[in-house]
Amino acid sequence: MNSFNLNVAKSLLGKNVNLHLKDGSVIVNVQLAEIQKDEMRGEIFVSCISHGKGNRLKIPLRSIAWAKPIDLYIIETRTKN
After folding, report:
1. In angstroms, rounded to a whole number, what is the distance separating the alpha carbons of residues 51 and 42?
2. Most buried residue among 46, 47, 52, 78 by CB atoms closer than 10 A?
3. Do 30 and 57 form a contact (C-beta atoms < 8 A)?
4. Domains recognised in the chain with CATH numbers
5. How far apart are the first and last CA of the chain?
6. Which of 1, 15, 10, 66 is nearest to 36 (CA)?
7. Residue 36's beta-bridge partner residues?
8. Residue 62 neighbours by CB distance under 10 Å
């Protein structure tokens, strides 16, 4: 994936992903909930919900380098053993 843009964000809505930010950090296992636009600043944000805790994060779209979809089935079966 070359860059993370609005179309990519829309295609991943409702899915769990690992978000790789441009500063090198990774936000692990979040569900992309919605896309919001700040009319005052003209900036687009991606609203995410962390898996398990349910905390909401609001991340500027321009700060996201790429996203890797993850399969929760694999995570849940490994934790049950």
Report:
1. 29
2. 46
3. yes
4. 6-80 (2.30.30.720)
5. 34
6. 10
7. 45
8. 12
47 — phi, psi (to 5°)? -95, 125
81 contacts: CB under 8 Å, gap ≥ 6: none
In tens digits, the chain (81 residues) has pLDDT values of 557 899 999 999 999 999 999 999 999 999 999 999 988 988 999 999 998 778 899 999 999 999 999 987 665 565 655
Q: How far apart (Å, rounded) are the C-alpha atoms in residues 29 and 14?
A: 12
Q: Output the pTM of the full model.
A: 0.80
The Cα–Cα gap between 63 and 75 comes to: 27
Residue 8: what are its φ and ψ, rounded to 5°? -65, -40
